[in-house]
Amino acid sequence: MNETPLKADTDKGFALHGSLYLKSNAPSDAVIILCHGLGSTKNSETIRHIAENLKYHMVTFDFQGNGESGGSTAIGNLYDEVENLRCVISYVRSTLKREILGICGRSKGAAVVLLYASIYNDVPLVINLSARYDYPDPDYVKKAFPDKLEKLEKDGFFVWEDGPGDYIVRKEDLITRSKIDMSCVKNINKEKVRVLTVHGSKDEVCPVDGAYTYDKLIGPEPHHKLIIIEGADHRFKNQKDELLKAVESWLFENQSWHLGK
Question: Where do the structural domains in the chain lie, given as residue ranges?
Fold first, then answer.
């Protein structure tokens, strides 16, 4: 395996930093673009494990304000990250001169790839690993940051110490987040795009019920395939090999569909 750094300039005055993973026996010359989740980076354990061990060529990158990338981030900025992904897709096509077989995201990144697909419909295979469906959750801060409620009410923001750098959570960002409507996945063009959803039955962060909702909105097969990994948590901590096997098998099967169109 060969890992090469890459840098994609945005039209916002900052660059997105990533890596290209080339595999010696990849089943296709095309690449899969992999998107990380909230408070994460391209070098997180789960993202690197997928990038290094999936047999396909992979591109990973840091969303704006995360890891090595410039710009700023926010808890509800999914549409900003959709445009980050669009920038990286353009870079892969125009600069690397490679076809993009699929886009894959985990958690927040999974919601981003689904939103991207619902708008642009220009990448054939979309992989959703543990995306949240229901964003309007008024108790989110109470559950996730119980010790920050007073500061949020008093100052309108708080600093999430475990976030990427100085991650500031603002009240207006939480309002933006609550208005995200993932039912837009019904706009994914079934003639151009196929979707895989893999979710853990014991996901403690993004309820598994959302995976079944995505199946109703995007399905049935072959347009959408739903795989629930029994006992898996949000990060597939003890089931990463099972996750890889599921993704790889679906990619290989649908690579044939894409090439045969």
Answer: 2-135+181-259, 136-179
The residues facing 33 across adjacent strands are: 59, 103
CA separation for the pair 242, 238 (Å, rounded): 9
State if pTM tops 0.85.
yes
Closest CA to 26 of 58, 59, 57, 60: 57
**pLDDT tens, residue by residue, 122-141:** 999 999 999 999 986 656 77
Rounded CA-CA distance 84/117 in Å is 14
Bridge-partner residues for 2, per DSSP? 22
Both tokens of 187, joined, read 């706009």
Distances (CA, A) of 123 to 62, 143, 190: 20, 36, 12
Instruction: Output the DSSP codes for 129-188.
Output: ES-------TTHHHHH-GGGHHHHHHHSEEEETTSSSSEEEEHHHHHHHHT--GGGGGGS
Helix (H) or strand (E) run with residue 211 in it? helix 209-218
Report which of 221, 202, 247 is spatially closest to residue 110, judged by C-alpha positions: 247
CATH of domain 2-135+181-259: 3.40.50.1820
pLDDT at 163 over 60: no
Q: What are the tens digits of pLDDT across the range 24-56?
A: 999 999 999 999 999 899 999 999 999 999 999
User: Which amino acid makes up residue 209?
Assistant: D
Tens of pLDDT, residue by residue over 94-115, are 999 999 999 999 999 999 999 9
Cβ neighbours for 128, distance < 8 A, ≥ 6 positions apart: 105, 110, 111, 113, 114, 195, 196, 197, 198, 214
The DSSP H or E segment spanning 241 is helix 240-259
Beta bridge mates, 125: 102, 194
